[in-house]
Model the fold of this input.
Amino acid sequence: MSAPVDSLSQPRFVAGDNGDRLLQVSLGPQHPSTHGVFRMNVDLDGETVVRLKPVFGYLHRNHEKIAESATYLGSIPYTDRLDYICSLTNNWAYALAVEKLAGIEVPERAEYLRIITAELTRLINHTAFAGFILGDMGAWGSALMYAFREREKILDLFEDLTGARMMCNYMRFGGCRCDTPEGWVDRAKKVVAEYPAFLDELEQLLLGNEILLARTRDVGALPAATLLDGGITGPLLRAAGCAYDVRKVDGYGLYSRFKFRVPLGGHGDCYDRIMIRFLEMRESLAILREALDTLPAGPVINPKVKVRAFKPPVGEAYARIEGPKGELGFYLVSDGSPRPYRYRVRPPSFINLTLLEDMCLGRDLADVVVILGSIDIVLGEVDR
Amino acid sequence: MNPEPAVILEQIRAAVPAARPVLLRNPGPAGQDSILLDTASAQDVFRFLKTAPGLEFDLLSNLTGTDWPEPATAHSVGVPPEIPPPPAQGFLEVVCHLYSTLRREGPLVVRMRTADRAEGAHLPTLTPVYRSAEFQEREVFDLFGVVFEGHPDLRRILMWDEFHDFPMRRDYVAPDDYEYEPTPHEAVWERAKEHYAVPDGTSETGAPAPPQSLGLADEAACEAACSPLREERDRLSPNPPASDREVTP
Amino acid sequence: MAVDPDLQETMRRAGVHVTSFEQLIDWGRSNSLWPLQFGLACCAIEMIAATMARYDMARFGAEVFRPSPRQADLMIVAGTVTKKMAPQVVRLYNQMAEPKYVIAMGACAISGGPFKEGYNVLKGIDRFVPVDIVIPGCPPRPEALLDGLMALQTKIRQEKLLGPNRARHASASIPGDVPVPIFGPHDLEPSANRAIWNPPTIPRKPDVA
Done:
């Protein structure tokens, strides 16, 4: 009989399944490698993980409950704060769900702007990921310093476009809130043109690094069928060789117009997961170059949509996008009133943690930190 | 590509006759019609949907709950043609969105409903069929109070273990900790106004002052409230002495 | 005993620096604040950004983020404090060694911010922990955090170590730790520490109908 996992205490001994004495360690909620306030209760036999129980809820800030008492428009700023590194993709998933719910068309220029901002967001996320996972391996600061230097350049673009660095609150049902300021496209082109040089630099710094190879190869690998059963989507699934990208499958927005490849991994270990993100950044840059070159003129929001006093018809809708961390979905039920009757976020970070225990069993405690880092979670989305 | 629930419904009827599936039309423009299952054989149906050739819904993307304390509201959102009238005390519903990664199809919306919102709030777990249901079912248990029979580890997931309520239910009342709200509005004002002492009692209708009158009662009270703050500010950043600013060459 | 600023300036021009022990200590403490590496939510990303290349908090002597509360002087409460997290935040505060300071960064840490209506959101960390500096914003920009840090440095430089007005940490009679709330069936118990959090009752204007 093991002790209840939720009692907060000092490290202590618990009984294992076959009567061993196991050391139970509570990792988090305040721990430098848990990416916020995530907590795991790990039972260890020596250094080896025998049992791992994640504990959630330390950032459960009732997004869904608040959204059910707010108007449809009033929830957009809250979606910014779900996955707070990628506010624009969250905006898009929510706007897409409302557009499905009410049957709204989006003008072409707005779709292009959505793709541009979403791919820039993917760049930010994957760049920061590379910095954070190096921090998890002990190289705190150096890789992150490079990553955040580049992130600031994209944040400058967001600030010019939306007025905010992180919480952009940019997309609306039927389009985007405002058009690009003068010269923005040229500045964006410049950032995109300079990005490959940074990626070369970072790849040179990281990917051949002996320590990184030793810490990540063959760590945390699971077969693709198991991952799919666990609901795991996004770069993790593709690193295990399953070609499933919502941008290709659903073709939402205007992604079907753009030429890009879906990189796949072969092993599904942590190294593949890092590599996949680097390859995805290259593809995002290809999409960005094409979108910025062919950005059409026109309105950025459907003028027929009454964004304020918005009342969708009775019904329900589920919409999803390929977020930087996986499949981000919104499920909305409307009873015809100005507030959603049910508002649900399908958070990729949360569901990707379903198989965390399976990935970590039999590994050392130090590998747990790397595996968690390779899943790439943001607690605002895990706990909502 | 969207699946056709009407066709899949016939396949379920043939494969698992006990399931008694019902098609629910989605009245909205999204067109995602759904299948309502009888709870007793739900696991068999999901196993069938996951493995049957031509269906292969291998990804349970989303599983969540909805609270319907008023069954009439539930009916206005999705009116089933032949379903018996729901119990008067309302029910809880679990909604699943399934995708097929092989055939690139989805979402297939499948629902289950509990008998009522109290003792009868039980549903079979889907965790043996889809591992991704594990944490999501725990979340529905935590926030809505649906007990999933057969779940391997059904504990609260987001709230603490000692918590008693089910906060996502529509009749949940949050604890009142709105004692100090300097700038209340809308919902916060509604909760906060009970804590405010209105000097002259209440208005003619007996209701407290409306949120428009946010000014302090009188100048003296304002001065009393603000002067410690002002002193603190002056203490923190006094004007620097003149000598600091003038540097003689 | 404070040094006369005019005398100090005169001597400084002559190449002699005269100071009191108190000023020297406060000067040293204010310029080597070690924050706790402790992020809660969105604001934590801006806190990290403030330490990175462009904003470089190292210029103010506060770049040494310590993962252990035992080695930290400054807790930057960066993000939403939920009721589930509040006991842990209070515990971390208690584990820090004196002298210790708290910055409430962002609207959520100050008052619950946009998530105020949430059932699991603590409406301000000052309900349980004494707060020295508040930085408004959602999230505050890195510049705002730097400004808040400088305000804290100003505050530390003016602290008295002796005498009746001495700083909180310098008087043995004031306890350095605060009680930790426990999880109740509906809410935290108690829902606020009334010994340190006493909000004024705000009188309202009567209805002018």
